[in-house]
Amino acid sequence: MASIPVLLLFSSVLLFSLSTFPPLCSCSASVLSTPSTGHHALVVPIRKDPLANVYSIPLKQGRASFLLDIGGPLLWSACSAFHPTFPCNSKICMVARTFHNPICPLAKILPGPSCTCYATPVNPLTNKCIFADLTSTDVIISTTDGHNPTGSVTISGVTSSCASRAVLKSLPRGIAGVAGLARSGLALPAQFASKFSFKRQFAICLPSTSDATGVAFFGNPPFFFLAVPEFEATARLTYTKLKRNKMSPGYFLSLAGIAVGGQTVEFLQRVLDFDSLGHGGVKLSTVTPYTVLHRHIYLPFLKAYARATSGIPRAPKVAPFDLCLKSSALGSTRMGYGVPQIDLMLVEGRNWTMFGANILKQVDAGTACLAFVDGGPKAERAVVVGAFQMEDNFLLVDVARSRLGFTSSLLGVRTTCANFNFTTAAN
Ligand SMILES: *[C@@H]1O[C@H](CO)[C@@H](O)[C@H](O)[C@H]1NC(C)=O
Ligand SMILES: *[C@@H]1O[C@H](CO)[C@@H](O)[C@H](O)[C@H]1NC(C)=O
């Protein structure tokens, strides 16, 4: 019995030190084999599934789509009958175990060649742990010059993990797995960057409707959107530093406060930081439909928003929201309904400002609700910035420099996330 905690401690110390090395690729059994020159970025469409409220990207031939999980540590899906595995004592196996999610049991790593490496990704929709073989797979994705797709590449030997087919039942229809974009060594940004020798960075631009596709880029700019004049997103970014959390490979903002209609919301600032166990903090999540606030923040925030909109007629509440307005009473602007703005006040003194389109969710023809939800008194995070608040915002995650670039709503510059030109340019 006593040997288990020792093993656990030993392996987590070892893994943590390994995680500071650049992503490993050449050490894996299957070396990436496509040519690595000439492409400065990869591009992939993002689709919104309005029923399941999830966003997905195609990474294979055919219709299989992968759930986009900005905080996920790796790529996972169901296993095919014959799939390569890695030994437990391989370096790549240690990388795979760098961020062990505490909800997953830690099994013994047996010495010797007969032990095959497994990973324990967590299904972000059910928050259940999945036992998955560490394996490798091919990814098919388009290259881009920043204006259009320029062709398609097969990236072979992308380290991933796979579980029994039963896991597919826990995912929405049409979703074949999960694509993790976190800052860990086996997440797609690190693997693509080392494969193509571009910067370890990616951008996501989530669509606001299911009849249009948004876009994700991996690699170096420019990233153009159709607009008049043509809009290059990275020229318009405001940057803020991302905080590291030893316990989680996700991306965390350095938030100093939240304001509603120009007034700072009063709450205990302390929860915006991590505690000694890595709890608290402000996380970005593409698998959380609406921003979730810890109750300590939610209640004063809700009160502040109700006060700021006190002149607007109310509509009956629609779950999971607590404040709904009669939309016929609302004026409209280029950036959605004309309602008080919300500022995420960053430590640098800059604001990520949200306008109507990212604040109010139209729940039926006559009702628009404040699209923020109560995380309760035991919420793990102070704030989880959800997907609705990111829609039609261009976000550049510069993993290498640990910073986030954001544009605020693209509607303000008369474009949207649906305006990347996916027509392949003729050569
Ligand atoms: C950020 O937002 C706060 C609250 O709305 C405001 O007082 C402050 O001036 C803003 N800062 C900048 C740089 O716009
Ligand atoms: C999209 O790109 C294609 C290929 O370069 C081009 O022919 C077309 O005009 C572009 N569409 C728009 C609306 O600019």
From TrEMBL:
Q: Which InterPro entries match?
A: Aspartic_peptidase_A1 (IPR001461), PEPTIDASE_A1 (IPR033121), Peptidase_aspartic_dom_sf (IPR021109), TAXi_C (IPR032799), TAXi_N (IPR032861), Xylanase_inhibitor_I-like (IPR033868)
**Annotated keywords:** Signal
Report whether Signal shows up as a keyword of the record. yes
Task: Please give one Gene Ontology molecular function term for this protein.
Answer: aspartic-type endopeptidase activity
- Could you state one GO biological process linked to this protein? proteolysis
Q: Where is the Peptidase A1 domain?
A: 51-407
Q: Where is the signal peptide?
A: 1-19
Q: Which domain of life is it from?
A: Eukaryota
| Pfam families registered for this protein in UniProt | TAXi_C, TAXi_N
**Family matches, as SUPFAM superfamilies:** Acid proteases
- Membership in a protein family: Belongs to the peptidase A1 family.
What is the protein's given name? Answer: Peptidase A1 domain-containing protein
